[in-house]
Design brief:
receptor; Type1_Cytokine_Rcpt_Type2; CSF3R factor; Immunoglobulin-like; mainly beta; flat; 6-stranded mixed β-sheet
């Protein structure tokens, strides 16, 4: 009952599963009889529309006879939508249109839905691309070793489709008129039977036409044809004689020698390469000296072999020679051979010619009446040296026949120091090589007291050059001499750093020798007048500037509670890298914002004012040029609480207070002694022993006692002088004296030194 409700017998269901399984394995549509996919074209232009149709025949697909068929489309693994309708008989048809198809290669599947999954039944493979591109730059060359014609070209853009490329050629059926353009046009009009010359292998863009297909010494038409399913493209047609494009081997240079009577000319013998004996050749010769940037070319050399002559060579100069040849034909497509291996040759020398540029400095020696001369000169140019200069000679007079003048200097350098008599006004300088000696150059030792120039300035001319400008003087000038020296900490003299400008009307000159960027140069200019040398003028310049390498190091010179004086050492000129335009001082504490001040580069100290007492500050300096700035290291300083004058006053005050306290302390310690010194103690006679002692020899006299309130004149009645008894100490009571006496007048006692008499006086009213 369950099987009957299922609606599909077991065996037909199993066969459908196997069938769908085979379709799911991407079997070709022609192997599956129940479904088929048809497309308008399996190869289409890229970007065009693609239409397809899938037809399923129910009676051929066992198990789908009673099922509802739902057709689905998949492009590779992507689901695409199509339309479905019932076809004739028991067929189901689905149509699909893919607009702007942009896949170069894809598979289009027709599927059905069964048991919730999509099963593939049939497939169509589609390719898309472009028609083949036109091959470009076709060229051919004939190899004389096997006489095969090798052609190469540029393939052009990829068509994304399988493309067959062949090289085709055809022979000329009748004679052609002269000229390459006529050759091509006539070939194209009278083309014979085209044959495939060769086919490139492995996707390359070159191949070789064998000798059996070539017609030598006759015009042939050659082109490249590229074909795919969307069309065919051909390159430009070449109409050539294969011999015109023969690639020859280079010729051989046999010998090179100077012509004996014309030493600036050479004769060169050469031979053609093997295999070209039957050809009329056209050759070219080129040569150059080692320092020449370009080659000199000699054309118009024809023949099989022979000798080529050329003049205008410099004396004593080494040259390199090379030669190449091609078939002497009217075709512009003929190939030159490679250049032959270089061959070197040095021309003959002769005596140097021309004048030497010389410059001098002279000063009188301390003793002996001699003139010390420092003579410098420029080596002659190669055109004037006529070979390798062996040395230079300085004499006091010109050379005459049969007599050699006295020589004061003979050197291989371009400078010489020597002494001459004080009255010498000129010397003679000459150069010599293996072929002879040049005519002497007269050097006048003129005094430097002429009119100086004005307006001298120098500006950069490049990284390794300087332009010097000046104003022309009123007096006529014969020449100018420029000197320049690199400014260094250690003195250094460059003997070659000078040049002479022969044009007296010039107001500019370019210095190129020995100029380096970021280095300072002192430049001096001397005008040469008739009979004298002008006083030099000077300037300084840089060819290129940058920020200084370092900034100066700050030093604290003085500090107070509100000011700090800083100083620094000037930067060495090697570290400046340009003209120092300014120094900038920056300072800041941890509370307020920083401040700065710009200092003139000629100064080497600065005073920071307005600082707060007992505050920490950080200070640094920045050195600047026109091209940049560089910061120095940080200097940390702390301002004082008090200034020096305040500290001095405080110490003075404390010292005075200390002295006063010490005085008071001493006074309190020595109070009794001070009191005795200032206020001496006067003894009270009433309490003395003498006041209580009355001698026996003195008669008793009545004493009249004045009332204490009575005032009157006191009268002295008796004065007695007593001698002190030996052994008797004053002040001790006499035993005979009464213990009590009436109130007596207090005596006055004056005690002198020991052993002196003691005076007693009793004064009565």
């Amino acid at each position: 009952m369950a099987r009957r409700d299922a609606g599909t017998p077991f065996l037909p269901q199993l066969s459908l599963l196997l069938l769908l399984h085979l379709g799911g394995e991407c079997a070709p549509s022609w192997t599956l009889g129940c479904a088929s996919v048809t497309v308008r074209s399996h190869i289409v232009p890229l970007g065009s529309d693609v239409t397809a149709s899938c037809t399923i025949q129910r009676e051929l697909c066992r198990g789908l006879e009673q099922e509802k068929v739902r057709i689905r489309w998949m492009l590779d693994n992507k689901l695409v939508a199509g339309s479905q309708h019932q076809g004739p008989g028991s067929t189901e048809v689905s149509n699909l249109t893919l607009p702007r198809f942009n896949h170069t290669h894809a598979r289009l599947w027709c599927c059905v839905e069964w048991n919730g999954t999509k099963q593939r039944l049939s497939m169509a493979e589609i390719r898309a691309g472009y028609p083949p591109a036109k091959p470009l730059n076709l060229s051919c060359a004939l190899n004389l070793s096997d006489y095969g014609l090798t052609c190469q070209w540029e393939q052009g853009t990829d068509s994304h489709l399988p493309t067959s490329v062949t090289l085709k050629c055809t022979g000329k059926p009748h004679p052609l008129p002269e000229g390459p353009q006529a050759h091509c046009s006539v070939c194209c009009r009278s083309r014979g039977q085209a044959v495939t010359g060769c086919t490139p292998q492995g996707g390359h863009s070159h191949c070789t036409v064998p000798r059996r297909l070539l017609q030598l010494y006759r015009q042939m038409e050659i082109w490249v044809s590229a074909t795919n399913a969307l069309g065919t493209a051909e390159s430009e047609h070449l109409c050539i004689d294969p011999m015109d494009v023969a690639k020859l081997d280079p010729p051989t240079l046999q010998s090179i020698q100077s012509i004996p009577f014309q030493t600036d000319c050479i004769a060169l013998a050469w031979d053609a390469a093997w295999g070209t004996e039957h050809m009329e050749l056209q050759c070219e010769l080129r040569y150059r000296a080692p320092e020449d940037p370009a080659w000199a070319l000699v054309t118009g050399i024809t023949g099989q072999a022979g000798t080529a002559q050329r003049c205008g060579f410099l004396f004593g100069m080494q040259y390199q020679f090379q030669m190449r040849c091609r078939r002497n034909s009217a075709s512009a497509l003929a190939y030159w051979s490679e250049w032959s291996p270089g061959r070197n040759y040095t021309t003959h020398e002769k005596a140097p010619t021309g004048k030497l540029d010389a410059w001098w400095g002279a000063q009188l020696a301390g003793t002996g009446g001699q003139l010390e001369v420092q003579l410098r000169w420029k080596a002659p140019r190669q055109r004037e040296a006529n070979g390798r200069v062996l040395g230079y000679r300085v004499t006091l007079s010109p050379r005459r026949r049969g007599r050699d003048p006295p020589t004061v200097c003979n050197t291989t350098h371009t400078q010489c120091n020597f002494s001459v008599p004080a009255g010498t006004r000129r010397v003679y300088l000459s150069a010599y090589n293996s072929a002879g000696e040049s005519a002497p150059t007269e050097v006048n030792l003129l005094e430097r007291k002429g009119q100086p120039l004005a307006g001298l300035r120098a500006v950069p001319g490049g990284e390794h050059s300087l332009w010097v400008h000046w104003e022309a003087p009123l007096a006529p000038v014969i020449a100018y001499v420029l000197e320049w020296q690199r400014v260094t900490t250690e003195p250094d003299h460059c003997s070659k750093c000078w040049q002479m400008e022969r044009d007296g009307a010039a107001t500019t000159a370019l210095i190129q020798d020995g100029i380096e960027p970021f280095q300072q140069y002192n430049i001096s200019l001397y005008p040469l007048y008739e009979g004298t040398v002008g006083v030099p003028v000077h300037t300084t310049a840089y060819s290129q500037q940058k920020a200084p390498s370092h900034a100066p190091k700050l030093h604290l010179k003085r500090i107070s509670k509100s000011e700090a004086e800083l100083c620094w050492d000037p930067l060495p000129v090697e570290m400046q890298n340009g003209f120092i335009t300014s120094y900038t001082i920056f300072w800041a504490n941890t509370i307020t914002n920083g401040a700065s001040a710009t200092v003139n580069p000629s100064l080497s100290s600065f005073v920071i004012r307005g600082l707060k007492p007992s505050t920490l500050y950080k200070v640094h300096i920045m050195a600047s040029t026109a091209a940049g700035s560089t910061n120095g290291t940080i200097l940390t300083l702390v301002t004082r609480v008090l200034d020096d004058t305040e500290i001095q006053f405080l110490f003075l005050t404390l010292g005075l207070v200390f002295v006063l306290l010490m005085v008071l302390f001493i006074c309190f310690q020595k109070n009794q002694r001070m009191k005795e010194q200032l206020w001496p103690s006067v003894p009270d006679p009433a309490n003395s022993s003498l006041g209580k002692w009355v001698p026996a020899a003195v008669p008793q006299e009545p004493l009249q006692i004045l009332a204490t309130r009575e005032l009157g004149t006191a009268t002295i009645s008796t004065v007695t002088v007593l001698e002190r008894e030996p052994g008797k100490q004053p002040g001790k009571e006499h035993p005979a004296l009464p213990t009590a006496l009436p109130a007596l007048p207090r005596p006055y006692l004056r005690q002198e030194g020991p052993g002196e008499p003691v005076q007693y006086a009793r004064v009565g009213g």
